[in-house]
Amino acid sequence: MTSQRMPGGRSGVRQASLRSQNLALVLGEIYEATRPTTRARVAAALDITRATASDLVERLVDADLVDELAPEAATTPGRPGVVVAPSSDGVAALGLEIQVDHLTAQVLALDGTVLGRAQAPGDHRDSDPRRVTRELARLAGRALETLPTRTRLLGACVSVPALLRSGGSVVQLAPNLGWTDVDLAALLDRQAPLTGIRVEVGNDADLSALAETRARSRADGSPRGEQSFLYLAGEVGIGGAVVIGGETTRGRHGWSGEIGHVVVDRSGPRCACGATGCLEQYAGLDVIRRRAGLGLGATPADLLTRVPRGVRAGRALGWAAEAIGVAVASTLNIVDVDRVVLGGVYAELFDHLAAGIEAEVAQRVLAARWAPVAVERAVAGPGSAVTGAALRVLERVVADPASFIEAGA
């Protein structure tokens, strides 16, 4: 049988693919813009015609992915451009967070607007995953109560301090939670209101680093691709992430960044992971609290109030800073970045940690003489992990809006 070529078949596929790529480029340009933008600016940035840019923006507006705002104030002759921005309520993602001492649910719109949030303190050390996921689902329901009826929920992502295989939903090991081989997505799918919602699972430090990368880009106006740093997420456990060119380096299995288990002293105390002398046993929040003479419920603010009044709190922070500096220096001798960003509770304790970390890094990093390392406070603020969880879902749509539009057609 002689095959017949359909008129325009291959050409039509190429054209559709090109339109999909251009749609993603336009939405990406609007999403990443650090100042108000217009169709004309989008066209200029992407080197496409204004007519093409206008047509693509119109498709994104119709899909509730982009909002048209008030025109800019005229500064030159001619009609002022209409400002376009990521949608404030057309689509949203649900970020979920499991930490040793709290659970959080947050609904985030594409423009960064928080549409709903709920949080609950708790002690989840050596906890039952079923109980924790039931409570997390309850918080998700509360956060979703205020979701506008027109808003389309894209999915959910849960942040957890754990080893996770790339692309999977199974917590292989979460030492501080006492979990091994727990399928979080499967557990959450059994809980209303999450039944039927696609749930991803991510490492807390990786997701915090994602939120930090976006926050830094928006704060200083630099492209996200220019962001490179070592991120430390200080909590009861200590997570880390290496960001190179705006992308988190996750390694072959997705396990990179476990700086909390870098050995500071092989003869040191036993860690929840089973090894001895891990950084977490010197600079984890529980250890700092204990050395400062505080209970497990004490907050970083409680710790800071103790510093001027007593020696123990200051010493506890000094020991933590020294240990962090040793672990960070070892990491920087392998990973070529010249910025260290302190997030989580370390951001709150920054003024009492930074100098000690800098001293160790200056002494121990081989290249510090030629490329001094800056130690900086995270700018993403509290809740960076749950924000990063929602961003992971949202940015999948930014990368491929055509599939989203076709699915909703």
TrEMBL record:
| UniProt keyword annotation of Kinase present | yes
Give a yes or no for keyword Transferase in this entry.
yes
Tell me the InterPro entries matching this sequence: ATPase_NBD, ROK, WH-like_DNA-bd_sf, WH_DNA-bd_sf
| Gene Ontology molecular function terms on file | kinase activity
Please provide the record's keywords in A-Z order.
Kinase, Transferase
Family, as annotated = Belongs to the ROK (NagC/XylR) family.
Return the protein name: Putative NBD/HSP70 family sugar kinase
Q: Which organism is it from?
A: Terracoccus luteus
What taxonomic lineage is listed for the species of origin? Bacteria, Bacillati, Actinomycetota, Actinomycetes, Micrococcales
